[in-house]
Design goal:
By secondary structure, the chain is an alpha+beta fold. Helix content is 29%, strand content 24%. The radius of gyration is 38 Å and the shape is rod-shaped.
């Protein structure tokens, strides 16, 4: 069974595709039509565009590898567009109008496709594969109106990625926690629980008096952060002529070697 991934185009990517294709359509129109006719080219990229749900017209494609650009034209679109370019109202029996219209719309497709565009359109029977024209598979669709001519355009996900490559965000490499916090200093407060006493008894205290508590000398103390979080527990010991702390308990997850 062939499983197709779902991959809608995001809003920013769709905006970038729309801007790029708009600019290429405008450049094509300026080359093939007078200024007054070029101004009548209307472009729309509706969010609910669903060319895979059927419709009237014939499909034509340009393909390079897996990159595909599809175009659905209303009936006799080549003739109508050729007449528009030639300034006539009816098509000739020799097919000159249809030939002119086909060359112009082939040029449009090749301009939108960009680099490595095939030289000619391929007419297909039926519709392209849903994966090539369905928005839920990453295809991007647009609609053009040129007079009475209606044109639907769909670039599949591969072509969209070629036209507007995804932005690669550089991420800083992860480093061990010890290396990351090594240069940072921290202030820790030592907290020793001496029990409770009557508040009135503390009012008569004088320098040199000794407060006896029920806490043994070997009782532990806690090191806490500036936010009051317990970091570790330990007991006071002597290290030469200095007070020291013997760690008896850790309150954070110890980093494991990688």
């Amino acid at each position: 069974m062939n499983v197709l991934p779902l991959r809608w185009q995001g809003a920013s990517r769709a905006d970038a595709l729309r801007a790029l294709l708009d600019a290429r359509i405008a450049e094509w129109a300026s080359q093939w039509m007078s200024a007054s006719k070029a101004s009548g080219v209307a472009v729309d990229a509706p969010a609910d565009h669903r060319p895979d749900q059927g419709g009237e017209g014939r499909w034509y494609t340009l393909r390079d590898g897996d990159a595909l650009l599809s175009m659905r034209l209303s009936p006799r679109a080549f003739e109508h567009f050729g007449c528009l370019l030639a300034g006539t109202t009816t098509a000739d029996d020799a097919g000159l109008s249809a030939g002119l219209g086909q060359r112009a719309l082939t040029a449009l497709m090749r301009s939108l496709f960009g680099a490595q565009a095939p030289t000619s359109l391929i007419a297909i029977d039926g519709s392209p594969a849903p994966s090539d024209i369905g928005s839920r598979f990453g295809a991007f669709g647009m609609q053009l109106s040129i007079g009475v001519i209606r044109i639907e355009l769909c670039a599949n996900a591969v072509l969209c990625a070629r036209l507007v490559p995804a932005v690669q965000i550089a991420r800083e490499p992860l480093v061990p926690r010890r290396a990351a916090i090594g240069p940072v200093d921290a202030t820790l407060d030592a907290v020793l629980d001496l029990g409770q006493t009557v508040l009135a008894d503390t009012l008569s205290l004088k320098p040199g008096e000794v407060l006896k508590t029920a806490i043994p000398v070997s009782a532990g103390l806690r090191l806490v952060s500036s936010r009051g979080e317990d970091i570790l527990g330990g007991t006071l010991v002597a290290d030469g002529a200095h007070r020291a702390l013997k760690v008896t308990q850790l309150h954070f997850k110890k980093e494991t070697s990688r």
